[in-house]
Amino acid sequence: MLPATSVDPKTAATFRLLETFHLISAQSKISGYEFYTALARRTDNTGVNPPKNRYPAFMRMMREWRHLKMLKRSGCGHDPGGVAATLPGSCAVLCPACPHPGKNLPADWADVPKDKRLFLSIDANFWLKRKKVSSDQVNPGLNHGYAYFVEEKAYKEHLRTYDKAFPDEISTCNNHDALKLASMKGAHQSTAASGVGTVDCARHDMKRPCSVGDLQKGEQYVNMDYIFWSTVCQHSPFEMIDIVASYDIACQWSKNIWTRFKHYGMSSNLLNRSFTFVIPKFHLPAHQESCHVAYSFNLLPWVARTDGEGVERGHAAHNLYASSMKEMGPGSRRDVLDDAFGDSNWRKVSNLASTFLAKVKMAVQERCEHVCAFHDFNAVMTTESSAEGWKDMVEAWENDLASPNPFIVTRPTVTLAGVRLQLAEEEAANLTASRETPFPAQEMPLLLPSAIQGTMACSPALMEVEWRLCYALANDILNDLRQHLRLRSHMYIYKDRFVRGQRQNTRARTTIQIVEDKVNVDATRYRTTFSALVALAQSLNKESEGRRTLAWIWMAPGAGEGSVGDTQDSLRIEWCKARARAHRWTEECQLLEEEMRRVLEFQEWIASWWLDQAERNVGRSPEHEEGSVAYAYRQAEIRRAISSICERAWKDVPEWLEVEDEVD
């Protein structure tokens, strides 16, 4: 029995009851009130003789139960220093597949760091908000940064010191403002926490130690910087120098990150590491064109098939706690979320055998398909110098991202401003060379060639001028249209996921309508311009886009011979992308094999760690010592059983991965 109070208890709950609700709440996200009400109705469902209200006592006991379970499962009961000696993040369930020097990496792992890098995924969840009820003084947390939440006092001191240290940065990307719709919602006006910022391991979707913190005014850099620093510096070994950080606004957030960290005084633990910043695959299309190359998981080397969206998938499960979280005090909310994150991590640990098996089966099949496709493409490139030059260019960029990017078109694109300037220069040259007095432009009727086609003859030179202007204008309009369509799509997705309430929905619809109007304007402008192009095309013998053929040429014999200009650029980019796809799937197979090895070694390490805890003497009664030793042996056996299941499930994996197609 667990008593409701430590002094003169009169109410208690059985361990079986507390354990039952603990599991049910973790699985179904049912609130304590619903569970208690169901028990009360089971006792008396008529209202004739209702039981006394023990709901507050039940919630106190449940909160203490969660906390004690977390401490026990992390080995605090075997530490002679007790709870007072608990280190930040030491109660978190660690990801066995992530790299942990000294636990699941070989002694010489630093000599081959490319497949030992750490993948992190950063994001904010605006569903897990908390209203302005209670306070830390009235409702303190039992857990002080021992698991997933950062230590609250240090975090708040950081926010007080640096909240206004940097002005708001002006976005240079489409996606930045779209993702900041959380600020538009005005949630911070009526809430103490508008959501939480989190950092997960991007490969396995597990919450990291000391990686969660409350947000006060949306997704501010000062909050996300501290949360990122907390988990990287406190729970990524100093030797772990190669880190990939995925964030949906990485293009903006990473720009001045080192300036901010130097101002915080946190840079000394970060500057010795190598960071690669990327944007999650689902969010990338909403960004501007330049981000699609510089921050793409598909193109960067040694990231395998990581998508960076794991943290979003975790949000979907934890959002079911949102309704009960809103009315909680700050301490209770942090304790419950720490328990929820721990349960989520543990379920993923216990399912690693089937998870990795499914990933390997898919990766082997996809590797074969994409490597063969690249070899077929490469075989028809009869001009070996082109392919070799592209290969050298790609490898130079992969080794140094500051080198020329092979995925970017090197020839300048046609723009309306450029054509206007060129025509103005040609007109000025013609006027200078002409001896006749020019007719005043303001007295000439504005009849463009496309407007008089079919009614009277027109100079081919004038038709060519209008064609060039319209062609460039159409390209500009299409670029605008693409950006507005991406932005509209992302706004709709954001609204469906995060916006709740009449006021917030009205504001979101207003913002979306502004973008919708821009889409309609773009469409109207394009139709007008396209009509002019159609009118001019027949007279000028222009070829429409529908009659241009390029894809079959790439796969035909002699595809690389004599390719110049735009075609050469297109061939190079398509060749580089085909190579990148083959490389990413090959890397995925290599990384999965490495991660499975890590899992087995980590389970053996933690089993040995529990056996060491059994030998520790905390100086208590013989009965207590007997129980602590038995518990340590049980935990060690659980880990070894999980390892055994993984070994049996993965016994054929080395054979599947043996046949490997090499990629140039």
What does this structure look like?
With 664 residues, the chain is α/β, with parallel strands linked by helices. Among the domains are: 2-74, no CATH class; 118-350, no CATH class. 55% of the residues lie in helices and 7% in strands. The protein contains 23 helices and nine strands. It has helices at residues 15-28, 32-43, 55-73, 152-162, 174-179, 181-184, 221-235, 250-253, 257-264, 291-294, 310-318, 322-325, 330-350, 352-379, 384-399, 416-433, 449-452, 460-498, 502-540, 551-554, 565-614, 622-649, 653-658, and strands at residues 2-3, 12-13, 118-125, 130-131, 191-193, 195-201, 206-215, 242-247, 274-278. The strands form three sheets. Strands 7-6-3-8-9 form a five-stranded mixed β-sheet. Strands 1-2 form a two-stranded antiparallel sheet. Strands 4-5 form a two-stranded antiparallel ribbon. Helix 1 packs across helix 3 (55-73), helix 3 packs across helix 13 and helix 14 packs antiparallel against helix 21 (565-614). It is globular, with a radius of gyration of 31 Å. The protein starts with a strand and ends in a 6-residue tail after the last helix. Mean pLDDT is 84; it is low at 544-554. Residues 2-47 form the CxC2-like cysteine cluster KDZ transposase-associated domain. This is CxC2-like cysteine cluster KDZ transposase-associated domain-containing protein.
